[in-house]
Amino acid sequence: PMNVIDQVLIIYAGNSGALDTVPRPKVRAWEEQFLAFMKEQMPEVRNKLAAEKKITPDIETGLKKAIEAFQPQFKG
Known about the structure:
The chain has helices at 4-16, 27-41, 43-52, 57-70. It is globular and about 35 Å long. It is mostly helical.
């Protein structure tokens, strides 16, 4: 089972269109790499989400920046 915070991160990313250009067979790799990126490079956003238990405007801004920063790093 996936951690609830990780589920929220992935669902948010999917709903934001971040996965629209990722080929279906590579979606799982994108998810794994994105979650690792969030834990290693953007822990403050993940920690805020865990503390607030909802996506506040501040957290949403952080998520958008995180997705934008992650996309060029994805190794599909």
